[in-house]
Amino acid sequence: MDVRALIREEVLAQAAYPVVTTPYRIKLDANENPLAIPQELRERFAALLDSVPLNRYPEAGSVTLASRFAERFGVGADQVLMGNGSDDLIQILCQALARPGASVMIPVPTFVMYRIIALNLGFRVAAVPLDKDFDLDLPAMQEQMATHPPALTFLAWPNNPTGNCFSRERIDAILKGASGIVVVDEAYCHFAEKTFLTDLDRHENLVIFRTLSKVGLAAMRIGLLIGPPALIHELHKVRLPYNLNALSQAAAGFYLDEEAAFLKQAAEIRRWRGELFLALDALPGIHPRPTEANFIFFSCDFDPDRVYSQLVDRGILIRNLSAPGMMKGYMRVTVGTRQENQEFVEALKDIIQK
Ligand SMILES: *Cc1c(COP(=O)(O)O)cnc(C)c1O
Questions:
Q1: 51-64 confidence digits (pLDDT tens)
Q2: Distance in Å, CA 156 to ligand 1 centroid
Q3: What are the angstrom distances between the C-alpha of 132 and each of 54, 124, 211, 325?
Q4: Whose CA is closest to atom 15 on ligand 1?
Q5: Which domains does the chain have, with CATH numbers?
Q6: pTM for this structure?
Q7: What is the pLDDT of residues 258-317, one digit of tens each?
Q8: Is the CB–ligand 1 distance for residue 153 below 6 Å?
Q9: How far apart are CA 42 and CA 336, in angstroms?
């Protein structure tokens, strides 16, 4: 029997999510916080995890946690849904909206999971290229909304991998013109320090995503969806009963208890980002783009495959995004510690001089 004959075409047509298996010393490819939990908090964190009863199921729906976050965000307790990372929330939202023939609109380039999950659930994906400044191409998106109204639109703000925040006016226009849900994914809000939270009252179709992955807890898989109560009510029927495990729930509570310490790290990363930007900008043939995230999107005038592989040879991992068209020569590097950033810049300098 050929099992592939049983698998849906949308799944067969995809490549598996690429995971790099090369050994590395310095990991600047996944937009993680380079710092561990602050030393003075580690014992408390360990004790907290140790107190979790592993023989019991976690609290279903993470409702206690959701209401704590709601308070922090200044929204109702019935407006927050917790997920096993944002990936889980993308999937839950897509599952709830995946009517036959429905479409998802995304700008490109953007976070790849929107496309992968939408395709897996049978959506058509309308990918609208960003304009030359990597901002939203509003006329093209409006045209799409007029001809094939999407059930769902995903806007990462700041955008991954380009690092910029799309202009607020254009997002506003999409929110006003859309007949479907519009997600503003604020995965990098700790580095951009701006939000659409205060716009929730004005738009019934606005949904905001947050995650603790970029601010220091990537391993714990904690995502948040903030939206209208009527939508959250339906999404609770779609999520798996125990989508957030008990250790993750405890870790998310710990984050709330100690948020100041995490925000202090984010502030430090923002300073290192400024230094890294200046160092890259000073290299001939390297052109960093303005960024509001914890990574820098840059183009290089050299063969990007050579630059990438020689960085890997030196144990430094970044993301090579170069492809024909608007992405030609582009790469993305996560802001690491000051030491890691310096080593990366030194290596890059050496490579491009050869
Ligand atoms: C990294 C990232 C996320 C985080 O996903 P998790 O599943 O929460 O780790 C979400 N959205 C965007 C745009 C990202 O770049």
A1: 999 999 999 999 99
A2: 9
A3: 52, 25, 29, 11
A4: 160
A5: 3-37+261-352 (3.90.1150.10), 52-258 (3.40.640.10)
A6: 0.97
A7: 999 999 999 999 999 999 999 999 999 999 999 999 999 999 999 999 999 999 999 999
A8: no
A9: 21
| Residue bearing tokens 């290596």 | 347
Question: Could you tell me the sign of the dihedral formed by the alpha carbons of 138, 202, 155, 97, in that order?
Answer: negative
Residue nearest to atom 5 of ligand 1 (CA): 86
218 CA → ligand 1 middle, Å:
9
Regions in the chain scoring below 70 on pLDDT: none
Q: What's the rounded Cα separation, in Å, for the pair 239 and 295? A: 31
- Rounded-to-integer distance, Cα 33 and Cα 31, Å: 7
Centre of ligand 1 from the C-alpha of residue 350, in Å: 32
Among 111, 212, 225, which is best to mutate for testing ligand 1, by the most ligand atoms less than 8 A from CB?
A: 111
Ligand 1 atom at shortest distance from the alpha carbon of 110: 13
Q: What are the distances in angstroms from CA 9 to CA 120, 127, 345?
A: 9, 19, 44
CA of 285 to the centre of ligand 1 (A): 30
What spacing in Å lies between the alpha carbon of 4 and ligand 1's midpoint? 30
